[in-house]
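Pasting as-is:
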Amino acid sequence: MNELLDGILLVFNFQTLLVILLAALFGVFVGAIPGLSATMAVALLVPITFAMEPTAAIAAIITTAAMAIFAGDIPGTYLNIPGTPASAAYVADSAALGRAGRAREALGLNVTCSVIGGLTGTLVLVMIAPSLAEFALNFSSFEYFWLAVLGLGSAVFISTGSAVKGFLSLMVGLLLATVGLDMVTGAPRFTFDVPDLMGGINFIPVMIGFFAMYEVMKLYSIPRDKANAQDATQTIAPQHGSVFGLVPTHLKRYWKNVIRGSSLGAFIGALPGAGADIAAWICYAVSKKRSKTPEAYGKGHVEGLVDAGSANNAAVAGAWVPALVFGIPGDSITAIVIGVLYMKGMNPGPTIFMDNSAMAYGLFTAFFVANLILLPIGYLAIRSAHIFAVTPTRVLMPIILCFCIVGAFAINNSLTDVWIMLVCGVVAYLIATADFPIAPAILGLVLGNILETNFMTSMIKADGNLLAFVERPISIGLALLVLLVALFPVLAKYWRMRYPRALPSPKEAIE
């Protein structure tokens, strides 16, 4: 009980609450700009968190992510351009409502479902994470090796698109993770006689390059006449109605959808490599499959908005379960968060609830506050949404580019980090242009060191005996789970062939 009170006091002070408020405004602004993701917002925020107290820094990241996920619905509703990938699943319905003059109604329902989903995901985090941490105390380096493999495999096979391209993207991240001194021999690897690379590649400039720099390059790769034409077509249909007027009616009618979307979103978010966008796609597909009026989906049906809108914010909190307990990122946002936790002395793992119990409860409190403040901030954002929707991206991108350069340099006051950021931006642009997913590369970078460290430690303890990796009961269970994840595409294909309508794909969900 004392730890809980200490955690609450860490959040309910003037400095932390002010940081949460400013982070909420920042998250809404970035999320509402078409093409700028919640991960990019968090990556830009990380250098600023260096000067903050640990609780304030984590609270800022939590708030920014929650706000950006919701704010992605604003351009999707007004312009049919999803602000974040998590908004893409139901953009056809929200845009149809916007064209019908019901944008405020749709966004009011979205922000309410986001709050409910976020609070549900937080409750799942509070109830599951400490209990799971007690179980994880039985883990050794063998189990952590399989957990790292599970995280890497999930990033490839759970993500949308080609599994082969996801695997190759993962290899890029693992290659970056090998830069630096070998942990066993101390020999330099891929350092090219650059002293700054002896300690490895810092994940922050890579994050900024892979997400923020990539968005800048993608915009400026568009011909100027097309970009100007795109900005010129950003017109908004006349709107009517209040923000929350019909929300009680919709919630009363679709309360089962809220519960299903929130719980399923939190569960999917807890899977390593899944994230809010995949949770939104799956919940939208399930909603359409279970609906009595599936033909109305994609034409302005609010039922899909309830399911997917509840799921994406629930997944944001759910993704923190593997991140806190095992140090395995649940999505690209928590991949960034893990590095911040290490910098702030909150080493993720099962002992975090014993060594930093007050800060852990402060983190839970920050989740509740961030989701509750989403309601008033979201209301203000909806009332002034036309400002976000019509802001030309070519005005914002030079400012974002400056943030990228300053943020990368400020980490170690080193130009090497700036060059890393620029090179990673080019690499991200090249692989994304070829339809390679970027998220597996990020997870490969974060999990690469965990994988190598636990593998080498286990091999030393087992004197080179590979069978030691499957001798412990928990290790065998995790190894079988890894095998199941690897076989998932084959099993899913077989299931669709045998039962064609039993397992709809995300593409079918919006057709």
